[in-house]
Amino acid sequence: MEECLSTNPIHKEKRLIAMEKLYKRMRRFLTELDWLKEEIKKQKKWQLLQKQRKITILSKSRKKYKKHEKKNSKKKTKRESLIEEIKKKREEQFRKSKQLQKDINDYIDGVKTPEGLRRIVDSRSTKKLCPSFELTGVCRHKNKCSKNHREIFLSNVILIIGLYFNFSVEKNPMESNTNVALEFKNSGMWHYFCKFYDNIITKLKSFGEIKTLKCYWRNKKHWRANLYVQYDTKRAAAKAWKNLKGRCYNGKPLVFHPLVNGVGFRGFTFKGLEEPESLTKNVGTNIVESWITQPLDHFNHRDNRTWSMRYKENSAFLKKNGPILIMIGGEWEITNGFLQGGLMYELGVKYHGLMYYTEHRFYGQSRPTKDISTENLQYLNADQALADLAYFIDTKKKEKNLEKSIVIVVGGSYAGNMAAWARLKYPHLIQGALASSAPVRAKADFYEYYEIVTDALGKYSKTCVESVKTAFASVEELLAMRAGPQKLKLLFKLCHVPDVRSSSDLGYFMNTLSEIFAGVVQYNKIENSETGIAALCNKMTAKHLGSPLQRLARIFSNQKKCNDVNYNNFLKTYREISWDSPAATSIMRQWYHQTCTEYGYYQTTNSNKSIFGKLFPLNYFINLCTDLYGDYHNKKILDSHVRRTNIMYGGKLPDLRNVIFTNGNSDPWHPLSVLQDLNAFSPAIVINGSSHCRDLYSDVTTDPDNLKAARVKIRKIIGKWISS
Asked: Quick one: which of 200, 330, 468, 536 is 20 to 30 A from 181 by CA?
């Protein structure tokens, strides 16, 4: 029976089917088991990842919290330090205010000008001066202005901000594009101003004589309602400032601001050398201003009078036996400029030198006499100034224990003469000199000056030269016509009709017009990627501006005030002898005396190539010498003074070694300088297309390659002098 079952094919098949089902079930079970194991593994991995993520999030949160805490802590510290800084600033301001009040009180009482009042404060010393603030004492950008706001503490002009008030000054915000004053008659406005004037003038006059009073009452917001008062002296202005500060007018406190110059108070001015850009941050903190006692007359042993000469010093880079580099001041007031930037500063830093900037007698704050009368101006000349420099060098070398140090002097323009002549006269004290744009040859009739001006204009545009020539010819034609002078008064916005009976009056008018072109060519600055010559010529050739005469008038009278070109008024201003007078502060009385007694340099129209007319010949300038200083002058006397200067200092052929003469051939002064090498040790570098004293500054991107190459050559030569 059993054999039958085992061999039964039906049972055998069923058994195989059952085994096959069991096998499949086992395979499914094993597969499910593998999946379950994998799932468990994934679950564990996911749990681990979740745990790590939680740890990471927690870590980040902790870091973020710590960072936030640190930031808050820094903010708190910063806030506390800021509060402390503000507190210190307020305390310092209060201290300075009290000191300023004390200094002004001392100054009013007749004490020598305190040092605190001599200070000049720059808001951004490395930037260019803000023209609006420099001229008016206010700027629409206020403290946010990107340019330099320069403030002084003594002036004969005070500014009272927002003093004048009438119905046209304050506008309704809804009427920003209207002029409220149009609703009122001029007579009503004038009556209101007269009433205001009567209210204030008595009080203002009680402090001193008032020369000019100006009031802005319909103008831009930052100028509107400002009152400018020009006193005859700085002491009178200081007295007004002291007594009126803290007072009220019309229910408003008076806000004061002293000025360098008031609106419209500038006259016959000289720019001096432009300040170079500062090359080092906060370098001004290294510069010290000081004074040295000098004899009034170095050549009269019986005269024991002395005076204090101002100078500035930068010793931040000095090392033992380092060179002494001196920037010589000319006919201007010295600043920090060349002790914080420019070519000499670069050399001082590189060779670890001691740097000085000396102020010329009778200029800036270096005042040897009680005034600038003709009698006292006899002590203003190159001989005395060079002796001042020699005494200064000798004193400082002993004082600083630098008797073995080499001395290099640097000067530009007239100070360039001083540099070359100092090396000539005192070679035992000075081992080398850089004379930039130095007119070392004195010449009475310097007619070549305007020839160079004409050439420079012509290089840019021949049409420009023709337009200028036509414009000046038109002016002369109108002066010769019966009603012409009156037309010129209206066209050029002159304060007075030119006096055709006075050759001096006509000469002054024409010379003033010509100086517009002379000043632009001499400096030829680049602004807004355009040279000064290009900007001027573009205006003179712009046909849409009218005839050449009208274009000239537009350039000349681009201001709201009338132009005073009256010769007698000019004389009245520059005959004043007080140090507080515009004659002294503008430096023109001092400088013009030097031209009358030493150099000439008179830029006349005696050339046949003149495009500026013929109305200011040499006699105009000779007569000006007589009218200003009261001495008798004529061509023979002037020629004798010029001849003496050239004999004493060698003219264009001085016997010199270790002097570099640099000139730009676009500079109108270059015909009077050394243009060819004197010898192997005294080279002349003529820079094509360059203008006045440009080599004294550091390289900028707008400088042409030949100017940069000239500076490289200068640095190399002076470097050899110092190294040897």
From this structure: 200
